[in-house]
Amino acid sequence: MAAIFISVGNRACRSAPRLLVSSSKGSRITLNSQLLFSEHFVNTTSPVGPGWYSSGTGVRFASRLSGDRTERFRKNILVAAGAAVVAGFAAGLGHFQRAEMASRVVRDTEKESEILEKCKSFMSAPVTDVQALQQRKDEMSTRMEMLIMETQSAFCRALEEVDGGKFRVDQWRRKEGGGGISCVLQDGKVFEKAGVNVSVVYGTLSEDAARQMRSRGKELKGKDGKLPFIAMGVSSVIHPHNPHIPTVHFNYRYFEIEQADGSKYWWFGGGTDLTPVYIDEDDAVHFHSTLKEACDKHQVQYYPDFKKWCDRYFYIRHRGETRGIGGIFFDDLDKPNKEEVFNFVKSCAETVVPCYLPIVRKHLNDSFSADQKNWQQVRRGRYVEFNLVYDRGVKFGLATPGSRIESIMMSLPLTARWEYMHEPSKGSPEAEMLEVLRNPKEWI
């Protein structure tokens, strides 16, 4: 005589379901199923004999059969049990799907609420309608727009706190598509001119802009000469009154182009760099160390590579000198994948306050002479030369129809100076500064 034990599982999501048939001697037959349920088998022995126990129903069944009757019973019970599995699966799946859908709704609602809550802290309403951002909350364009808006707000608030003034906020629209938010603080107590811009523009690339892409090695194939694109970024340049407080610049951006076959080509770019008028080694070490720490969170090779790139990029070729003491710079970054590059850009954007504001506060009360102010004006002239002759962002902006010229030229200082055949005295702090600009050094 043999006892037959059958277990039909009805608990979800641990393993593929199985229908078990077991004898009192321990042998068992297992029927595997593709259903996403796991077995729950309990072999029990009681005064009425061995049997199986369903923990889900609290019902115990036992069978004491032999011979052909055992085999017939086994087949019948397997058929019945199989039907029970299917019915249980259908009911369980419906419950599982409903639970998953409810969970997804909660997550989506939380993300939409998060977007709305973040918008309250921005300098202005985002360029893209908030409802559209909520509907496309998981798309990279939405995530990047939220990041650049957050970066603009955090930097502006920090500058307002140290200056005591308030930014003028201008939201502008571009008839070809998109727009931007320009925040400018002018003639403040600390900052002669401080600008922090956000732009989100889209449309089709002009021929001039497309040529610039090709000059950077991008073989982009448009349809009927058109290349739909979306570009967004945050950009800032700060020009302080005091020549002992450095000028700082940062820019972080995202670009996406659709080619003729419908494929999308994307990349990120940006960087942060410092342009002091006088060398303060502690400031340089702090600035570069903060950037290196952000880079090292992602790849240890980022900082040395992007520091060199920065020195090469911010180079005034016709003068044979760099614009400042550098920082990091990268462009056309599309590896290893979109998510990892975005997280790297986010880490960099989060450094703009801690890498610069401590330097500002350190030199707030430094005294300076008329000659030192004059040297600041000369160095600003070099800054203007680079921006107008070499800067890619300025070139792209001027070549893009509908661009806002006031926002593009925001990077220029209120005042600058060009002296004929100007050369600082040997051994002077000004000559020391010029030596560093002609021969970039490693700060850390």
From TrEMBL:
Q: What is its EC number?
A: 1.3.3.3
Classification via Gene3D superfamilies: Coproporphyrinogen III oxidase, aerobic
Assembly state and interactors? Homodimer.
What top-tier enzyme class does this entry carry?
oxidoreductase
Q: What is this protein called?
A: Oxygen-dependent coproporphyrinogen-III oxidase, mitochondrial
Upper taxonomic lineage: Eukaryota, Metazoa, Chordata, Craniata, Vertebrata
Superkingdom of origin: Eukaryota
The reaction(s) annotated as catalysed by this protein in its Swiss-Prot or TrEMBL entry are: coproporphyrinogen III + O2 + 2 H(+) = protoporphyrinogen IX + 2 CO2 + 2 H2O
Q: In which pathway does it act?
A: Porphyrin-containing compound metabolism; protoporphyrin-IX biosynthesis; protoporphyrinogen-IX from coproporphyrinogen-III (O2 route): step 1/1
